[in-house]
Amino acid sequence: MYAPLTMKKLFVVLAIVSFVFACKDKKEEPVNASAKILTANFWKLDRFTDPTGKTLGQNELSSQAQAIFDLEFEFRSDNVTRGRDKASKQIKNAGSWYLKNDNKILDIQIIGFGGEFKIIELSNNKLILQAENNSFIKASSTVNLELVPSL
User: Fold this and answer.
1) Domain of 82: which CATH number?
2) Cβ-count burial of 126 within 10 angstroms (0-12 exposed, 13-18 middle, 19+ buried)?
């Protein structure tokens, strides 16, 4: 009779402890301001420029670069990135994205649009990414990708 009473007490204590830990507030990891801006919208390519801001013409762009104009990019809070067709809204490809080096580098791994891009500007209205030694332009040098929210 002594042992069952102890088991009951142990069970009650374990149940109370389990309840206390189950009800404890779960704190989510803080999301930094850059990630909040990136995940707030779909983004579309507005133009390619050289590092001085001069717009590059279609004849200076590779076919891969020209195809990016037809897509909108989503950067989700779970680090999934997706490219969808602007007209049909169908997902064309997907991959991952991560902010690196104190939010100075955007690492995108998606078919046709991958690599580490230097963040030149990030605001609610504009995202400028810089790619070095890339295949976006025929001259294979530094290029800026200027993206704007797709509304």
Assistant:
1) 2.40.128.540
2) middle
Beta partners for residue 74, in sequence order: 42, 82
The residues, ordered by sequence, that sit 6+ positions from 115 with a Cβ below 8 Å of its Cβ are: 107, 108, 131, 134
**The tokens of 120 are what?**
């030149």
How many structural domains does the chain have? 1
Asked if the structure places residue 12 within a domain, the reply is no
Strand positions, DSSP E, 1-150:
42-49, 71-75, 80-85, 91-100, 105-110, 115-122, 127-131, 143-150
35: phi then psi, degrees, rounded to nearest 5? -65, -35
Q: Distance between CA atoms of 61 and 74, rounded to whole angstroms?
A: 23
For residue 89, being part of any structural domain is answered with yes
**Tell me: the pLDDT tens digits for 80-129?**
999 999 999 999 999 999 999 999 999 999 876 778 999 999 999 999 99
Task: Spell out the residues 6+ positions from residue 133 whose beta carbon is closer than 8 angstroms to its own.
Answer: 140, 141, 142
- pLDDT, residue 17, reads 42
Structure token digits, residue 78: 């779970």
